[in-house]
Amino acid sequence: MEVILLERVEKLGQMGDLVRVKDGFARNYLLPRGKALRATEANKKRFDTQKAELEARNLERKSEAEAVSKKLDGAAIVIIRQAGESGQLYGSVAARDITDTLDQQGFKVDKNQVILDKPVKTLGLFDQRVQLHPEVLATITVNVARSEEEAERQARGEDVLATPEEREAALGIEEVFEEEVIAEVAEELAASEATDEEGTGEEDTPAAETPTEESEEPKSE
Prior knowledge:
The protein is of the alpha+beta class and 221 residues long. 43% of the residues lie in helices and 21% in strands.
């Protein structure tokens, strides 16, 4: 089916372009969402008549989307889910879950704007794209954890799925490394102090004896 695009569509074209797409894609996505019109002669004339209005409306929507993107881009949201020891979720995180969480933070986003290639099914941090406008894209971080405390640990870069033994081993390595560094610094300081003492120290000299007055004995005549 040939259609006229009413806005920019990723990997398809810009506003006003005539493009040929699969019938199902046009009927199920482009036409019902107002992204395109069938490329009939009547619709071509209609588009030419409304082109200036459509472009003005598009610029307004783009400006609004850019304002939201400045606040949303780079933001992080936390979604709490139950999961097994391996990190596999008992269920999944879908686009609706992301938009509901964003809504709680004051961002009004439609679930169709969340570009989720597949549902999230494990714990972890995920970069998620949000299409605020055909020409405006924001990226957020979705932190999926079993608790708020676990989410904070994940945000700090900790592997929450590591076993206690693995965490202890990692901690032990860090402590050994710290001890080695401390020992090296202590040796350097000691050597530096010894050098300073050798360079500036003076040999001890015996104190000069001060003469003392001897008591004069009376001379015998």
